[in-house]
Amino acid sequence: MNNDIIARRAVTVADVARAAQVSKATAARALGGYGSVSAAVTQRVLETARRLDYRPNELARTMATGRSGTIGVIIGDIENPFFGLAVRGISDLAAEAGFDVILSNSSETLAAEQSATRVFLTKRVDGLIVAPATMHDGAHLKDALAQGCPLVLLDRDVPGLPVDVAFIDDQAAAREATDLLLASGHRRLAYITATSASDTRYYGSEQIALTTVQNRIAGFLEAATAAGLTESERQIRLGASTTTRSQAILLELLRQPDRPTAVLSSDSKIALEVFRAARALGLRVPQDLSLITFDDADWTSAVSPTVTVVSQPSYQLGHTAARMLIDRISGDTVAPRRCVLETALINRESVSVWPALHVKNRL
Amino acid sequence: MNNDIIARRAVTVADVARAAQVSKATAARALGGYGSVSAAVTQRVLETARRLDYRPNELARTMATGRSGTIGVIIGDIENPFFGLAVRGISDLAAEAGFDVILSNSSETLAAEQSATRVFLTKRVDGLIVAPATMHDGAHLKDALAQGCPLVLLDRDVPGLPVDVAFIDDQAAAREATDLLLASGHRRLAYITATSASDTRYYGSEQIALTTVQNRIAGFLEAATAAGLTESERQIRLGASTTTRSQAILLELLRQPDRPTAVLSSDSKIALEVFRAARALGLRVPQDLSLITFDDADWTSAVSPTVTVVSQPSYQLGHTAARMLIDRISGDTVAPRRCVLETALINRESVSVWPALHVKNRL
């Protein structure tokens, strides 16, 4: 099928230089992303390289630039669509810049993330993008920095770590979503997250290992408090990380005498479980239960009713993280940057005015 | 949070040996997976290692065994839930056996797969699991084998490549699903796949680069022919790889004067687009359009109607591929194995009897 391409002599930097009408040294600089080349020339060289299907020779590149041309990415959960889209954003930018991407899935555990960091350092990646499984232990990430490996955090921060971060304003996004539920008349609101903790009940932010979740809960509580609600902490649930756990949490939550009438879900996997659990309990969305979730996952606009979401710029987060990392790999030494990208509340059909008529208040 | 673990002295092979009450040499053999150790002792040593949170020293292990303890996995599409679950299966088995997993996403392109193979060989992985983007070019995979890197194919075969394969019987699975549609009275059936081709129309199996898709189409056509249908090839569509392309294909297909009354979808991403397109056209599932899809993705049982699926053992496919690879890494030299795992047709609500009453036959 592609034998014609394979059989062809490999395209060299000299070929690219000739076709782009620049010197070989200029082409090498543009392709390697080092030294001084104008943006226009860089663009011309990269386009020519793409057109000719130029593939850098790994060994030659490592010798010329001291780099292997590889970025290591550690994601939290390969089964969460948020990360699938973020990885596409990383990979697209990396490919443009001539870097290969290798991935590791931490399953949101610190041990796996530490192991992956060690593996990537052993494999001599040029830089790391990490969605850290916990904000409470960054020793392995500090080690990577100490070894000279550039690092960018994706989605989550590790306070005290002097690195670039690409994330959203989780607190403002959660506050905006909660405000929509409050404006619709809801007074008993639940917040559900997959983040692990020793208990499914919430006692305070020190239980939480992810800055995203801490900030979302802060936004949820801030909105609730501003609306005069005083016991909203009691309706926060942690550890909805598997179908079984999510279902147990939801059944417990929705079978309370004063059950929540609206749920804010921390990711789209949980929202799908809310959807199922509501059906299993005979609760209609949105008449009996309103729902908003973080992440505009594909299915949220295919189910009936469609689900109101906080859309995160997942692709752009990945793209931005990769951009910052490649800047660092190229020698950029500006102070750590904190890139906050915009979210959008997409109002669909899963939020209804409360109290509704003919509603199931108790189960 | 985990500072107590971090601060502890690293657990050594000697510690594991002492706790498991075996000699250090025996513990090293069991942990390294080499030499002769009984199954019972191996199990005791591995359990002890797990309990003590033993982490092998990378350098020491490479020196002792010639291995780096890393498996490279190249998946087709990180955004397809099939691969998310397969990677979990691979990772669980690999972790048990003391291997780290690093991933690469080919986006179903040969060039990216070739690049990833080269990167993984440069990074000296101990073995490769690949879901090949095409059956027509295995030169890079043959190279890997020639360099002594064990290889297992996941989900798809490359004819002529003498390696282990973990897959399903795609032809039988597609035939069974098609038979269900035929038994419900449908006579105009469509098959839609994401696999790329120069045209969205189907002219013959030589257009198709994936054995899975070739075999599924063969099963689809076999069932249709056995039922006396003669023009089913005309209702096969290729290249539904993005939302935009899927929608264009579906609109064209469903706006035909003799539109299909049932669709068999090659993966769950396409099925979601069928669901959306049907709604956009005002077609009700299943009254106006029946649907079966490969892959029991989460959302298929949450939408209304729930979707009838061919459930693939994705997790088990990954697990089996990893098992075979680690056998090979450990020196297993039996002839290449072809592991065919069972699928299950899960009959839900998206298939209706045809012709139905009050149906939209034309748009």
TrEMBL record, chains A, B:
Key word RNA-binding present: no
Keyword DNA-binding (UniProt): yes
Transmembrane regions listed in the UniProt entry: none
Residues spanning the signal sequence: none
A Pfam cross-reference name: LacI
Gene3D superfamilies in the record: 3.40.50.2300, lambda repressor-like DNA-binding domains
Keyword vocabulary terms for this entry: DNA-binding, Transcription, Transcription regulation
Residue ranges of domain HTH lacI-type in the record: 11-65
Protein name, UniProt field: LacI family transcriptional regulator
Species this chain originates from: Labrys miyagiensis
Gene, per the UniProt record: socR
